[in-house]
Amino acid sequence: MSIPKSNIEKKRLDECSRHSRTGGTEGMPWKKWGPYLSERQWGTVREDYSEGGDAWNFFTHDQARSRAYRWGEDGIAGISDDEQHLCFSLALWNGKDPILKERLFGLTNSEGNHGEDVKEYYFYLDSTPTHSYMRYLYKYPQTAYPYVDLVETNRRRSRNEFEYELLDTGVFNDNRYFDVFVEYAKAGPEDILVKITATNRGPEAAGLHLLPTLWFRNDWSSWIAESNRSPEKPNLKQIKEAKDTSAVTAMHPLLGEFILSCEGEVPLLFTDNVTNNDRLFPGYPNEGPYVKDGINDYVVQGRQEAVNPGKQGTKVAAHYQVNIVAGQTTMIRLRLSRSSPEQKNKSFGKDFDRVFDDRLQEADEFYQSVTPPSVSKDTANVMRQAIAGMLWSKQFFFFDGYNWLSEHNSNPLHTGYRNARNTEWFHMLNKDVISMPDKWEYPWYAAWDLAFHTLPISIVDPDFAKDQMKLMLRGVYLHPSGQMPAYEWNFSDVNPPVHAFATLFLHRTEQGLHGKTDVEFLKLAFNKLLLNFTWWTNRKDRFGKNVFEGGFLGLDNIGVFDRSAPLPTGGHLEQADGTAWMALFSQNMLELAVELATHDPTYEDMVLKFAEHFYYIAAAMNRPGQEGMWDEEDGFYYDLLRLPDGSATRLKVRSMVGLLPLCATTVIEAWQRERIPQALTLMVERLRRIPELMNTMHPTGPGHYGVADRGIAAMVTPDRLRRILTKMLDENEFLSPYGLRALSKFHEQHPYVFHVSGQEYRVDYLPAESNTANALCMAATRCSRTTRTGATTSCSMNTSTATTVPDWVRAIRPVGPGAWQNSSNCSASWMPSGLWKGVSRLRSQRLPKEVTYEYLAEVPADL
């Protein structure tokens, strides 16, 4: 995939790289502006200041239009600068909705019968890596958006029923909707052209309000921590521009001055991005007469006094009103650019459309240069839009651990602090553009997801991919202990250690595509990953036996017990997947050390270190008899339950956990061995002196090389490999028409059952979607736990008579509507969310046998 000399987008990437390397003295900041606005800031942990950590209900969608955010902003098809001082997005109104469509709507975790879910139709159509060209599509109904219907209908449905989707409501019947396209093209790093095109797909003419909106993230109010507060309040105000143009100047003390030019003599509606306390928190005065929802109230409710007649504020929208004939299209044009004399009165000249044409042509040329020539045109389009989706999913993420914890009275550096979520992460300062799993469903980074994100991103922007990898290893992310932050719901949770794998992959990709090696990147990543590896060995190998725990490790309680919670048996789990991940981590670090030893011989010692780690882990995992994870009878790996008395039993759940040891396999090329002669000699000597090590892994070394003298480092022996594959490739076990099952179909007819203290825990195979999610669900005589991976864990108990609440229960909710209302004992504790807290008080009560209810082993985050 050669890159033509005329590839303008590639040149922009080079300018970005030079700008970053030189601290801004050279090059140009083409990535200064991008799609860094979230699609959901409400319902996030950062915005949660509740006593019990109820993020979903503390800051709701209904509040979002009126309540200023503390840590970020959201919008539809939005952009911002890379520190999110100034934001731009599109708001819409069809004349029938109860509120402006300023942000995407979806159900919270407790509202959806299958958990949280965005209920909108929007598409990332295109983007270059510098965001010099971007295109987005939103489908907006012409009838009133069914907010209440979506919530109430989904709430009534059980987990055994399909979700109630926006399409099911009928709002798109007869194609009564608008296709709203938003396109961006950069004439310069800080000169952004915008086209918004709306097409009426319905059978009749329909009215539409288009409100492109510009605003400042609130960084000036008194409730902002002083260390994060702007030195002065920014300001937007209307200015004179050329004829048939309306314009706003935006001045921020840290960003400088920008001008938003809007084509046409269009009304500009000004307000302030501050909370409407009168609506949400009566008794607390507003900061001023103009509040966040002022534009909404002006347009939807006709309240003229809701916007500032002085034509200034910190939030402004241009109010375009159009009536579009059936099948026809209307377009508005805007321009956001840094204020300069050359730009004045030239916003919509003849070059405006030419810039869009040029940027699109350059995008075509760029993607052609990175697309394998062997793929079809259709496949190339799929690849391009998939990568565009990754690029659109960048988001500015702001979290100041010290101040956030101080505001929650949970900063351990302060006297009298209370232990709360993420208390031990007070060192964190996250203030970066980060690739998100999903900017609505998961608008927060997840460390191991991010590692995988970098792989496709590296095809088009290797520098950004490497920067993302380095983020999690920086001192303001990585814990001083060496632990990597997992995600904002619990930074201390444990993700699989895949960053060394991703670092190696990025290195190989850059070598293959560009023929170069970034030694400084490899050194930085290796040295920080060494800290993380040490954390794993010190914290997750409880007794120094080279077998590892880790908790859920991305498999969401696929086992018979919640692997992230205390076990009902006591003791602990020695996890097959955790141990396999560490074997792979060792192999990846070994390969990185080989690469670095070519440039710095001091790294050759590290090759031996990680080879030994791999040997010992393989030996521990493959230990024969009841002390090992391998089950000779079943021919499969299982988690080992280590009980308090020291005895052990295998938890014979056939799941992805037992397949992961296959991943700990690395091919060693002849040229790699040639680079480390001393380390290789020592490795051979170590295996000669401890011959047992060779018996517990795949044969390797002289006499066992493959094609081109390739060697192999694998913890699964050839015989065990064949036995595992008989299950993995069996359609009655793991192999399905759609790939591998997370749980073997074997458990459909043979559920795994485990008894603890008179309770029965079990795993059943459940195809497709689960019927419960992360809860111990009890309906009359049975409680079950089902995860999104398809595993079902159950505990049965006799409820033929009234029962007390078991000790392991942390929350309760009724399954049927109004179930508790029939109980005089329980009515006082009924909560609107359907969840019953304060279980310690309930244990003295008797629950009526006729009630159908769920037991929860832990209080859900959405409670």
Give an account of the 3D structure.
Mean pLDDT is 89; it is low at 771-808 and 815-852. By secondary structure, the chain is an alpha+beta fold. Helix content is 27%, strand content 22%. Helix 12 packs across helix 14 and helix 13 runs antiparallel to helix 14. It has a nine-stranded antiparallel sheet. It starts with 7 loop residues before the first helix and ends in a 7-residue tail after the last strand. A hairpin with a 2-residue loop joins strand 8 (177-188) and strand 9. The longest helix is centred in the C-terminal third of the chain and has 22 residues, at 576-597.
Note the main attributes of this structure.
863 residues; alpha+beta; 22 helices; 27% helix; 22% strand
- What is the straight-line distance between the termini? 52 Å
Q: What is the helix tally?
A: 22
Number of strands: 36
Mean pLDDT metric: 89
User: Poorly predicted ranges (pLDDT <50, ≥5 residues)?
Assistant: 771-808, 815-852
Amount of helix: 25-40%
Strand content: 15-25%
| Biggest beta-sheet profile | 9 strands, antiparallel
Question: Biggest sheet: strands side by side, in what order?
Answer: 6-7-8-9-18-13-12-11-15
Rg, rounded, reads: 29 Å
What would you call the structural class? Answer: alpha+beta
